[in-house]
């Protein structure tokens, strides 16, 4: 499952994305936005609906580490969680804008590595759950663009769906479905 993705946007580009969605970024520009590949335990830019009175329609950008400690203090990090049974409230939902993500295929190292990038003329982001100041990617069954390479995929949202995912009261299950064919393009990089 996805254990590496890339963010390659400037502060101005994040502000422009949110303006296209009729939302304003509430946060101050972080001093060190990530640029390039992000792996578990590293910080990524996460967008969420700003909470509190007078914050309606605003978006907050935070730099959060990827993954949290498993329940009961197990080893490793929880970096991906299945979306099918989730019903998290808006305060726990976020978007990790992405420029590409990687999946692997094969039984033995070195496995083949594939980069997935947007095939649509629209920014894409991962649906995430934020817990205790950290995030994990939501996953779903693979869409047609990923199915031949991997058995699951990150929940991938088009820009037009970001605001609804962040703010809908009831869980937006239709948005956590596999990405439709033609959303992503794959390129084998190894």
Give an overview of the whole structure:
The chain has 190 residues and is mainly beta. It has one domain: hypothetical protein yedk fold (Alpha-Beta Complex). Helices cover 10% and strands 37% of the residues. The chain contains 2 helices and 14 strands; from the N terminus they run E-H-E-E-E-E-E-E-E-E-E-E-E-E-H-E. The chain has helices at residues 11-20, 159-167; strands spanning 5-7, 24-25, 36-38, 43-49, 58-65, 80-82, 93-98, 100-105, 112-118, 124-131, 134-140, 153-154, 156-158, 184-188. The strands form 3 sheets. Strands 6, 7, 10, 11, 12 and 13 form a 6-stranded mixed beta sheet that branches. Strands 3-1-8-9-14 form a 5-stranded antiparallel beta sheet, with no helix packed on it. A hairpin with an 8-residue loop joins strand 4 and strand 5. It is globular.
In short:
The protein has 190 residues and is mainly beta. The chain has helices at 11-20, 159-167, and strands spanning 5-7, 24-25, 36-38, 43-49, 58-65, 80-82, 93-98, 100-105, 112-118, 124-131, 134-140, 153-154, 156-158, 184-188. The strands form three sheets. Strands 6, 7, 10, 11, 12 and 13 form a six-stranded mixed β-sheet that branches.
């Amino acid at each position: 499952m996805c254990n590496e993705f890339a963010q390659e946007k400037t502060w101005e580009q994040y502000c422009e994305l949110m303006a296209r969605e009729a939302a304003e970024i509430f946060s101050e520009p972080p001093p060190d936005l990530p640029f390039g590949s992000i792996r578990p335990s590293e910080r990524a830019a996460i967008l969420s609906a700003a909470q509190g009175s007078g914050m309606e329609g605003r978006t907050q950008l935070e730099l959060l580490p990827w993954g949290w400690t498993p329940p009961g203090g197990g080893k490793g990090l929880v970096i991906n969680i299945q979306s099918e049974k989730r019903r998290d409230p808006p305060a726990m939902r976020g978007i990790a804008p992405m420029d590409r993500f990687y999946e692997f295929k094969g039984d033995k190292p070195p496995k083949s590595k594939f980069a997935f990038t947007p095939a649509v003329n629209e920014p894409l982001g991962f649906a995430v759950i934020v817990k205790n100041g950290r995030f994990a990617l939501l996953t779903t069954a693979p869409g047609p663009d990923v199915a031949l390479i991997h058995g699951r995929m990150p929940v991938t949202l088009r820009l037009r769906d970001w605001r609804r995912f962040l703010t809908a009261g009831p869980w937006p299950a239709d948005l956590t479905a596999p990405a439709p064919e033609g959303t992503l393009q794959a390129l084998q990089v190894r």
